[in-house]
Design a protein that fits this description.
The chain has 217 residues and is of the alpha/beta class. The protein has eight helices and seven strands, in the order H-H-H-E-H-E-H-E-H-E-H-E-H-E-E. The two termini are 30 Å apart.
């Protein structure tokens, strides 16, 4: 990605933050090293279905596309229309739904997917109320396959604040395994990734085969 593109993305992110700080909740997009960690759960083989929540200007989107390298399916849910338009222009091969991330299951069903093998979140958890956090995480566990992985990130400097502590507890309540990555100190601000596996309430729609084995439609 060129320096001009990076500057354009940061400008777009700042504009959207100033328009609606409660849904954007950050003044700059995530950096490449953080995106690399956040997308590490995508398998290198097969044809996984990857759902991306809150892609913003596409920092994680690009990393997902590199890991998939033409395989599988990539769906993104972005509530901000301007961000969605930007992503559509840059990534015309991705299915982008302009809706609330709590509608994840509906978006998957609309595109003929029973579940997601990987769910990657760029959502601003600290901006959500406890009930919104609960609804979003319930949507994730309802859509994630039993063998799947959910990843989201948190800022290191806020990890002991009540909203961040509540998020970690909510993740531990909903997943049998929750692992934290190393801190990416050169991210602005420094951040780390949660890897969550084995949802306690996995996707309930029957599916005969793992999408890791399904052919690309």
């Amino acid at each position: 990605m060129s320096d001009t593109t990076r500057i354009d993305e940061r400008s777009a992110f700042l504009r959207e933050f100033l328009r609606d700080p409660f849904t954007v909740a950050a003044v700059t997009p995530s950096g490449t090293p953080l995106a690399h960690l956040a997308t590490a759960g995508i398998p290198r083989t097969g044809h996984p279905t990857v759902a991306e929540l809150g892609p913003g200007t596409g920092a994680f989107t690009r990393a997902i596309q590199r890991r998939l390298d033409g395989r599988g399916h990539h769906l993104a849910i972005e509530i901000n229309q301007r961000f969605a338009d930007l992503l559509t222009h840059r990534h015309p091969n991705i299915h982008i739904a302009v809706t609330d991330a709590r509608n994840l299951r509906t978006v998957l069903t609309t595109h003929n997917h029973h579940h997601a093998d990987v769910i990657i979140s760029g959502l601003p958890w600290a901006a959500f109320s406890p009930s919104q956090q609960d609804d979003l995480l319930n949507a994730v566990t309802a859509a994630l396959a039993p063998h799947g992985v959910f990843t989201t990130f948190a800022y290191t400097h806020t990890q002991w604040a009540p909203p961040a502590r509540r998020l970690r507890q909510s993740l531990q309540d909903r997943f049998e395994e929750v692992i934290s990555s190393r801190t990416i100190w050169n991210n602005l601000p420094p951040a780390f990734v949660y890897y969550c596996r084995r949802p306690r309430t996995p996707a309930t729609t029957p599916y005969p085969h793992s999408s890791e084995q399904d052919p690309v439609s």
